[in-house]
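Field reference: sequence -> structure
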Amino acid sequence: MDVIKELIIQAATIGAIFNYRTTITKGSETPLAIFCLGLAASYFCRFVLPLRFNPTNPFTSEFARRRLQHTKGKGRGNGKLDRADLSDMYGTEHTYFNLKLDPDTMWENCGYWKNANGHFPTACRDLFEKMLTVSGALDNEPTSILEPGCGCVEAALHMLSNRPQNLVNYVGLNINKIQAQFCQERLKDWQSEHGKPAQTQTLRVFKADAAQPETWSNEVRDTIHSFMQPSASISPEKAPARKWLICVDCLYHFRAGREKLLTYAKEEFGTSLVATDYLIKENLSFVERWLLWATLTGIQIPWWNRLTKQQYIDLLVRCGYDRDSIQIIDITEHSFTPYADFLSAQTKKWDEIGGSMAAIRPFVHWGYCLRYWGWAGTLRSVMIVAHPKK
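Structure field:
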């Protein structure tokens, strides 16, 4: 019922807005009537339908509906609440006022949940730390890092806060303009609070399609090429001796594929690679292939980005990486299912405080996909390390 109601609300609202714009543009009376009808349907679904749960108070009718839903089978009379319970303004909905809406971190990956105890930021941090540990990035030598799909630059802030001594240059790329601007603000805020590290040559984030280096602006290219040109103010022992391409849960989203970026990074900079990615199992049946296509398409992972383990190794070799240096570590056990459990628990909490399910519906679907993959084994979550040929 909730899903149907939300779909009606969204469809009616979108239809109303569309027809309103048509009315303004063309001056037709028919779209205006449709606009009014859609607007009325939207308000009816949102405010009138819930009144059956508490006819005496339209302001708490939605509270009453949710209270009935969450106490079913638990309260007196198999979930039946007294009229006072339904009409009372105060329940547990005031959780909303106690939410921390300015979070300390903005991680966004599937996480490594082995020791996270259901805590999302910890799982995301542990995944990134495992990538650094397995690859040896930032160990003992000055390092330059290029991070495509940098999200909200949480990985960079983590390195600056916990391993600043060897981070010489950092450039992040993000195709999303909103996130790219947010990243720049976060970096400025961090520098204002902590001061710019003396050894840092470059600390930048750009809006760019990381999958297509040929589309990058001159500013992006020049900044990245500064990886290879240490400033005269940097002593030789502080000059970047190692260059890493770090890709956290992003390569499988690239509509142009992985090859252009990997080839460019290796040929131009000689970067080593550490990434998390997905692999499909060999010899998928027709049903498995169809279900995989449906789930990947639903979460905007291009179907042509699917690769088996051997295909991935061959891709890295074509891009110039040494076959003998390639490591592929399966982390599915500590990724898909525990992440799906977290999404399920978080969704339940969100619903209990009255949050709109429409706002988080994509994450609910994402959780379903993760649980299916963890059960079926058609998709595996892996960590990849590769070094260029010498």
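Note: The longest strand covers residues 272-280.
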